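To whoever is on call:

I kicked off a structure prediction for a single chain this morning and the downstream step that reads the tokens threw a length-mismatch warning. I double-checked the sequence; it's 101 residues and nothing unusual in it as far as I can see. Pasting both halves so you can look.
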Amino acid sequence: MNAPVAIRNLRGAGQLVLQWEDGEHSISHARLRGACPCSQCRAARISGVIAVVAADVRVERVESQGYGVQLVFSDGHERGIYPWTYLHTLSGPTPLLWERL
């Protein structure tokens, strides 16, 4: 997957806006934090631990990593690198729980 054409971090609104070839999509900072792909967060989700993400968590910095971006959050978490394909998937509609089973 190609990188988005543009990325805007709307801290006040708590949204990361990505301009893809198929249109503009936004993802809330809280959704991004809850879906962190780092090994620690993934292991917690696999083991059934549900992390509660504060609604006021914000993306402080967006750092390019070539195949995606590293997001630095206001709660201090900065371990996850979000590949472009994963970000594009997150920017789509949230699947219902029973659709994931």
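Update from on-call: the warning came from a stale cache, not from the record. Cleared it. Sanity check on the structure: The longest helix spans residues 39-46.
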